[in-house]
Amino acid sequence: MDLIRFPLSTGTNLTLSNAKLVEGWDSLTWIERYRDSGEFTIKADASSHIRDDLPVGALISHLNTPELMIVENHEIQSEEDDVDKVTITGRSFEVFLEQRVVGCNRNWTAPVYPMPDFILPAEKTWLQAERFINQHIFAGYDSWDLSNGITNVMAYMKDSLRHANPSGFVEDRSIPRGEVYKQLIDILAIDSLGIKSSRPCSLRSSCRIGSRPLQ
């Protein structure tokens, strides 16, 4: 498996022309999931300097998938033969939404206390999920704070949902305070939807997150 990493900042398009091959690892486990986050585990000799290539926050993928994952942890262990081993773990890219708090990115013209409930207008859940993500990451989206935007990252729904117009629950939703990622998963579960991170395939593409219907 050809493991690749991208620049730390999403401000650089995450295309293969900007990718670097990761070498020096002994084993790699790569798991992609439908709704829950995917995960990976990389094991290598600590002397391989792979920690320098894959610091916490590094974005990685491999050539057989568009899935994008993020490095979250390094762990050093000493083996019986006195050779130190490093284990590098992480999850699929959408878990960065754990770093967003529901409603707290709103660009209010004046202080509002207490903060009003966060309401998603009545529409299909996949449209609500798309809106919900973009309101917390997309600069200037629907009067949200520009400083909270993430360059080259946006949410979109799968084309099959956009054109097929399948049935689904339609109602407005009051979203409780808490981390955006957890509340997003709850919204997707209503219509058995999933989420998948995807790196771009061309220089003009952006790194996107998309919900998709249960297969």
Index terms:
215 residues, alpha+beta, 2 domains, 7-stranded antiparallel sheet, 3-stranded mixed sheet, 4 helices, 12 strands, elongated
Topology at a glance:
Layout: E1 3-6, E2 20-21, E3 27-31, E4 39-45, H1 50-53, E5 59-62, E6 69-78, E7 84-92, E8 118-124, H2 125-137, E9 153-157, H3 159-164, E10 170-175, H4 180-190, E11 194-198, E12 207-212
Parallel strand pairs: 9-12
Antiparallel strand pairs: 1-2, 1-5, 3-4, 4-7, 5-6, 6-7, 8-10, 11-12
Helix pairs in contact: 2-4
Q: Summarize this, please?
A:
The protein is α+β, with helices and mostly antiparallel strands and 215 residues long. 16% of the residues lie in helices and 33% in strands. The protein has 2 domains: 91 residues, no CATH class; 116 residues, no CATH class.
